[in-house]
Amino acid sequence: MAARGLGLLTSLPLRARRSQVQRPLCRLLSCPGTVAAALGREEQSLGSAETGSEDRTPKKRFSEVQKERREQAQRTVLIHCPNKISEKKFLKYLSQHGSINNHFFYESFGLYAVVEFRQKESVASLQNVTRTPSLATEAAVPFRSRYFNLKLKTPLNQTSEQPSIQCRTQSSPSSKKLFELLCCAESVDDQLNTLLREFQLTEESTRLRYLTCSLIEDVAAAYFPDCTVRPFGSSVNSFGKLGCDLDMFLDLDEIEKFSTHKASGNFLMEFQVKNVPSERIATQKILSVVGECLDHFGPGCVGVQKILNARCPLVRFSHQASGFQCDLTTNNRIALKSSELLYMYGALDSRVRALVFSIRCWARAHSLTSSIPGAWITNFSLTVMVIFFLQRRSPPILPTLDYLKTLADAEDKCIIEGHNCTFVRDFNRIKPSGNAETLELLLKEFFEYFGNFAFNKNSINIRQGREQNKPESSPLHIQNPFETSLNISKNVSQSQLQKFVDLARESAWILHQEDKDRLSPSYNQPWGLAALLLPSVANSMSLAKKKKKPASERIKNLLESIKSSSTENSTATNGRAVSTQA
Ligand code: GTP
Ligand code: MG
């Protein structure tokens, strides 16, 4: 999930420096991650809204994407392959069961193939010729899944002179490569877009995520036939980074839908069921049995933990073959709706995802976020903060949630557990923003905005798109967009918030300094986004002193410097004076 080891950037060679002059095309072509390299990257096949790439083609609704992907996953199998096989023979062998639409290989402690058949029946045909292994020392629990193991009958003959299989990478670039890419970029805008391109989920990773959900659904169906397991969170909201966790939602309401046929006459038939004292207990019991099932029978599911006393009960496990860390929840429909809302915001303007990815990477590089639960800001909160900031621009880049609600029609109406989660889902009904600010400006302004936000008295609220008085005393208050009485950042401590504020101010200062230095560039210095990902001055100082200070002397000096230069220049950016008040 994280931009691994970004702290290493300091020790790397500095290769390139931003120039105010346009780079020659040959330079661009030789630079990994620029337009030329991007052209070689995989294409996304299921609609541009899903990926946020250029918005010329019609954007697909979230529900359409989910439906198509789910159906695609049901026709797909996962095969653990011997290290050396002939791709041609492999495909020929599988084609006996029906035509293949798509396939790719990847490595994750072994070689795996993801094969999508044209027809669902092909999967059944393959299952029919598949045997349960007979093991010499252990016993196998028989389970007819869509996760297979391919063996070669005569390995030696088959492995000779085989061309090597082309594997699709499922990991983000190393910090060294990222640094090179950022330094090769044309401008700060180009840096943000490069980071997005390199870190966003690939087509293959997205397919594998839907397939993993589909495989888990097969296991859960042993208890709950007709259940659905849907991905949510960053795997589908368009803000997912390669390697992010896979949030899954066990949907049992679909079962309900099957039985809502019209009652005839004066009779109404109900299932005999066991009753439990509350919805929460029902959720815990369901997850408990599904957790047991995954642990005992789920092929490739390891390290199953049932975390049933959490605010939102879940089963956590690793899916070995895909390498995903999975969190399975149920009765969590609002989170699915939040994913849909974020997906819409991500698709409305191409700057949104670029900015969110950079802010998420920046936060991870400075340990503001963590994969371990704790008092840190979450990626979800950071995304909501970026959306809020973009709603506050003049003119706004993103509409408020209340405005999206006014555009909704009867079909969009959605009430979940008494909460009104209605918003328009048709992109055509939302006017594009007239705001043409650059990513560079937005990045700088984001840091200035939140470096000076009155967190002590104000709450962040994307429903209304304006600050509200904080209804409670948590250091950071970000209103849950749908359960409006809840704070999605209740866990964040005062010291973590202060760290965020200090780093935001420092980053604003770095970008501001770069603006001043433009006419006299100092060579061999990281610049723009690359400079922001370096270990912070404030952090290294506080580590050296091993003392916690609300704001280091250095930051105060930096702030003074911004203050004086903004007074000197008396510049107002986009009509808003640069303020440095805490
Ligand atoms: P990463 O996993 O960090 O990449 O981002 P994520 O957006 O997937 O976050 P996470 O896995 O923590 O949570 C998954 C989803 O659950 C989020 O996208 C939200 O839709 C929802 N969610 C997470 N935290 C909260 C919260 O505090 N309140 C509410 N209502 N929903 C949350
Ligand atoms: Mg997640």
From TrEMBL:
<dbReference type="GO" id="GO:0097222">
    <property type="term" value="P:mitochondrial mRNA polyadenylation"/>
</dbReference>
<feature type="region of interest" description="Disordered">
    <location>
        <begin position="42"/>
        <end position="69"/>
    </location>
</feature>
<feature type="compositionally biased region" description="Basic and acidic residues">
    <location>
        <begin position="53"/>
        <end position="69"/>
    </location>
</feature>
<dbReference type="GO" id="GO:0000287">
    <property type="term" value="F:magnesium ion binding"/>
</dbReference>
<feature type="domain" description="Poly(A) RNA polymerase mitochondrial-like central palm">
    <location>
        <begin position="189"/>
        <end position="346"/>
    </location>
</feature>
<keyword id="KW-0808">Transferase</keyword>
<feature type="domain" description="RL">
    <location>
        <begin position="62"/>
        <end position="130"/>
    </location>
</feature>
<feature type="domain" description="PAP-associated">
    <location>
        <begin position="442"/>
        <end position="485"/>
    </location>
</feature>
<dbReference type="GO" id="GO:0005739">
    <property type="term" value="C:mitochondrion"/>
</dbReference>
<dbReference type="GO" id="GO:1990817">
    <property type="term" value="F:poly(A) RNA polymerase activity"/>
</dbReference>
<feature type="compositionally biased region" description="Polar residues">
    <location>
        <begin position="562"/>
        <end position="582"/>
    </location>
</feature>
<dbReference type="GO" id="GO:0030145">
    <property type="term" value="F:manganese ion binding"/>
</dbReference>
<dbReference type="Pfam" id="PF17797">
    <property type="entry name" value="RL"/>
</dbReference>
<dbReference type="GO" id="GO:0071044">
    <property type="term" value="P:histone mRNA catabolic process"/>
</dbReference>
<dbReference type="InterPro" id="IPR041252">
    <property type="entry name" value="RL"/>
</dbReference>
<feature type="region of interest" description="Disordered">
    <location>
        <begin position="560"/>
        <end position="582"/>
    </location>
</feature>
<dbReference type="InterPro" id="IPR002058">
    <property type="entry name" value="PAP_assoc"/>
</dbReference>
<dbReference type="GO" id="GO:0042803">
    <property type="term" value="F:protein homodimerization activity"/>
</dbReference>
<dbReference type="InterPro" id="IPR043519">
    <property type="entry name" value="NT_sf"/>
</dbReference>
<dbReference type="Pfam" id="PF03828">
    <property type="entry name" value="PAP_assoc"/>
</dbReference>
<keyword id="KW-0460">Magnesium</keyword>
<dbReference type="Pfam" id="PF22600">
    <property type="entry name" value="MTPAP-like_central"/>
</dbReference>
<dbReference type="GO" id="GO:0005524">
    <property type="term" value="F:ATP binding"/>
</dbReference>
<keyword id="KW-0479">Metal-binding</keyword>
<protein>
    <submittedName>
        <fullName>Mitochondrial poly(A) polymerase</fullName>
    </submittedName>
</protein>
<dbReference type="GO" id="GO:0005654">
    <property type="term" value="C:nucleoplasm"/>
</dbReference>
<dbReference type="GO" id="GO:0000965">
    <property type="term" value="P:mitochondrial RNA 3'-end processing"/>
</dbReference>
<dbReference type="GO" id="GO:0002134">
    <property type="term" value="F:UTP binding"/>
</dbReference>
<dbReference type="InterPro" id="IPR054708">
    <property type="entry name" value="MTPAP-like_central"/>
</dbReference>
